Amino acid sequence: MSNLIEKMTRVLTELRQPGKGSSMLVGVLLATTLAMSAANLLLPADSAFYVSTYTITLMGKYLCFAMLAMAVDIIWGYCGILSLGHGAFFALGGYGMGMYLMRQIGDRGVYGNPDLPDFMVFLNWQELPWYWFGMDQFWFAVLMALAIPGLLAFVFGWLAFRSRVTGVYLSIMTQALTYALMLAFFRNEMGFGGNNGLTDFKDILGFDLQADATRVALLLVTTLLLVIAFITSRAIVQSRLGRVIVAVRDAEARARFLGYRTERYKVWLFVYSALIAAVAGMLYVPQVGIINPGEFSPLNSIEVVVWVAVGGRGTLYGAIVGALLVNYAKTRFTAIMPDGWLFALGALFVIVTVYLPQGLAGLLQRFGRSESVQAARREEDAGSDSGISTREVNA
Fold first, then answer.
1. How many Å apart are CA 17 and CA 139, to the nearest integer?
2. Nearest by Cα to 193 from 94, 308, 283
3. What is the pLDDT of residues 111-147, one digit of tens each?
4. Residue 370 to residues 4, 12, 17, 365, 379: CA-CA distances in angstroms?
5. d(CA 330, CA 344)
6. Residue 37: Cβ within 10 Å count
7. Which of 24, 116, 146, 326 has the lowest CB atom count within 10 Å?
């Protein structure tokens, strides 16, 4: 038992060290998704180890949420900016991918129009809006799905940070931003499907979205991009740039007095986190099969903050773990008591705030430190006992 505790202590200690935790998390993510993919494609459906396509899709959705949580953790945990509007960047990236998928339907829609999506035919639109041009090309759709959220984040961040808006005022502004976008996208005149959004997707890059192989490929791509984003973000926060960002978080006035243009660092990091959120939205849509204005809801952005708080902000891996655990709990809880999930989520946030202010990551770190102290004391006691025995023998 003592050997097991010592091994767990070493694992937790390594997880806190730069680079070690990254390798461990990357290995777990890759091994898990590869094992699930193989179990889905290679094993028969009646096998005890078979993983259903539904589970593959659910895991892919969880990983998209994990990427979104990591984007929030980058800006909140390391720069101290509590954004309640990252759901907007997530949804904009999703709409960019949704527009591409809608253009791929062609004449296979309900109304059989090769140029106009079904909702435009239903609303008596006569021609495709100009902002839909080029969205039938995958590379252009990806470019737009990244450029629009990135540009929005740059303009918003530049105006807000140059005006030195901070704290709860900035959080309210980000919440107002996503709420305004939600109201706009609910309007049919916007040309994005209104209340129903974009759905009924058929294929992506010529591959059937309902095929098991396509679902597995989307899961693997999501895992790979999550790993790349995690490693890149880890490298940034451990670099000199990351140390300046942490200094801005802890003492912005002092950093500005030393000559740093703090607003530029904050804008850059805000745009970077918005791009990660947009990528998560792009991966989310083909796996879930729908994107609607409800994704802009401020409640969704607040829920992301809860994921990060549960996992532990300022750790990156904590945000990923928190997103996975909370969303799995949501799936199980809503199946048992659908109306009680929001109450459970609120209670969870209160409990974490009061008793686990550093989240699960902080709990693991405290456990690792306590076990390290106990191990050191055991070594000292063993050394003391050995010294006493030696003196007795010499006597």
1. 38
2. 94
3. 888 889 999 998 888 899 999 999 999 999 999 999 9
4. 15, 11, 17, 9, 14
5. 9
6. 21
7. 24
Three-state secondary structure call for residue 55: helix
Tokens of 340: 């009680």
CB atoms near residue 49 (< 10 Å): 10
Return the structure tokens found at 374. 């106990």
Distances (CA, A) of 93 to 20, 64, 262, 384: 32, 12, 28, 63
Q: Are strands 198-199 and 207-208 parallel, antiparallel or unpaired?
A: unpaired
Amino acid at position 70, single letter: M
Please state the length of the chain: 395
What's the start-to-end Cα distance of the chain, in Å?
A: 36
Three-state DSSP at 314 gives coil
In sequence order, which residues have a C-beta less than 8 Å from that of residue 209 and are 6 or more positions away? 101, 201, 202, 203, 215, 286, 289
What's the rounded Cα separation, in Å, for the pair 188 and 172?
27
Rounded Cα–Cα distance for residues 228 and 38 (Å): 22
The pTM is what?
0.88
Question: Which DSSP string corresponds to 173-196?
Answer: HHHHHHHHHHHHHTSGGGSS-TTT
Tens of pLDDT, residue by residue over 130-140, are 999 999 999 99
H or E element at residue 41: helix 20-41
